[in-house]
Amino acid sequence: MAMSICLRTHALTLEARLNRVSVEIPAARCCHIMGENGAGKSSLLASLAGLLLPDSGQVLLNDIPVEQFELTELAGFRSFHHQNELPVFDLTVAELLGFYRNSDVTEAVPAILEDALEILHLLPRKLGQLSGGEQQRVNLCRALLQAWPAIEPGKGLVLLDEPLSGLDIRHQYALVTLLRSLAQRGNTVLMTSHDIQISANYADWLCFMKQGSVIASGTPDTVLTSSNLSSTFGCEFEIRHLQNSVQIFVANPTVNPELC
Ligand SMILES: Nc1ncnc2c1ncn2[C@@H]1O[C@H](COP(=O)(O)OP(=O)(O)OP(=O)(O)O)[C@@H](O)[C@H]1O
């Protein structure tokens, strides 16, 4: 297997966003970061990408401080997908992807990406005329295409902020299956997620955040507990283990009784 990328942070601190976060993300795994709104997931992801400088602490990428990499060097092997970032101007999908596609990539959309994201039929369309979910798929394709020469042989780092948001259920499952297979090739994949059910079943590694801190991280069989879920999200959960999957039920959602 190609050498894969490992990420580590040491006491990463960013005022009111990250509070001395020390966490290790294993190489060649698909890691899902979970937590309530404002927990610090996007801030951690952007710091790991080398795009957000901490007030103190460090991000190490294969044991090298991330700030020692030139941004152009990072862009060659690291994909970064933000939420809602498609440009508003009047480009077609083909024109946008053309800007980001590395010249080593010969296909308009590599087959493995097309299988999951279904982009080809959208190529002639204007960006401003796409639905929200179509825009999200194009945006994900753009991020992966940019570093595809590194990702294809399993040497990439893929960081995606809420990639499931806006996708229909079929595309959600197609995407998490794609991401798991990219990790199996050797890529290190990290994504934030609000879908506990999908993350419980498709992550190799889970990271739970609360109020700027990582409160648990590890393989699902070690950290996917009702106690960790309850500390992270502030409601009660029941976890049922089936033969090949895990089902999560919210046992006691915290809502205003007057609304029931
Ligand atoms: N650019 C910014 N400047 C200052 N504070 C910010 C900035 N962006 C986010 N924050 C704050 O930092 C904290 C963490 O935000 P972050 O976006 O990392 O959370 P998140 O876990 O990704 O949330 P969500 O699930 O809502 O996307 C929040 O309190 C947020 O209000």
Report on this model:
The chain is an alpha/beta fold and 260 residues long. The chain has a single domain (7-259), classed as P-loop containing nucleotide triphosphate hydrolases (Rossmann fold, 3-Layer(aba) Sandwich). It is built from ten helices and twelve strands. Bound molecules: adenosine-5'-triphosphate (ATP). Adenosine-5'-triphosphate binds at residues 16-17, 35, 37-43. Adenosine-5'-triphosphate (ATP) binds at residues 16-17, 35, 37-43.
What is the topology?
Elements: E1 7-14, E2 18-25, E3 30-35, H1 41-48, E4 56-61, E5 64-65, H2 71-77, E6 78-81, H3 93-100, H4 111-117, H5 132-146, H6 148-151, E7 157-160, H7 169-184, E8 188-193, H8 196-202, E9 205-210, E10 213-218, H9 220-223, H10 226-233, E11 236-241, E12 246-252
Parallel strand pairs: 3-8, 3-9, 6-7, 7-8
Antiparallel strand pairs: 1-2, 1-4, 4-5, 9-10, 11-12
This protein binds adenosine-5'-triphosphate.
Q: How many domains?
A: 1
Helix content: 25-40%
CATH class: Alpha Beta
- As for the CATH topology, it is Rossmann fold
Number of strands: 12
User: Which regions have little confidence, pLDDT < 50, spanning 5+ residues?
Assistant: none
The average pLDDT score comes to: 92
Strand order of the largest sheet: 6-7-8-3-9-10
Instruction: Please tell me how large the radius of gyration is.
Output: 18 Å
What structural category do the secondary elements indicate?
alpha/beta
Indicate the proportion of strand residues.
25-35%
